[in-house]
Specification:
Length: about 70
């Protein structure tokens, strides 16, 4: 699902929602919960970056060649 972002605020709201969903999912994983909080934060920060990059890749429209 590709969403049109009309503003930077829309993009930030969308990323915020993705982060909240990621945290909700991660809290359901017993092995994740068993990690120290600092390790959980580090993993979530890394995953947030990957989600952001993946979203940017799918939302870019490729240049048309003739």
């Amino acid at each position: 699902m590709v969403m049109e972002m009309s503003s930077l605020e829309d993009l930030m709201n969308h990323i915020g929602l993705l982060v909240k969903l990621l945290i909700k999912f991660a809290k359901k994983l017993p092995d994740f919960i068993a990690l120290p909080q600092a390790a959980q934060v580090t993993l979530l920060k890394g995953e947030n970056y990957q989600l952001d990059m993946a979203y940017k890749c799918i939302s870019v429209k490729p240049a048309q060649t003739e």
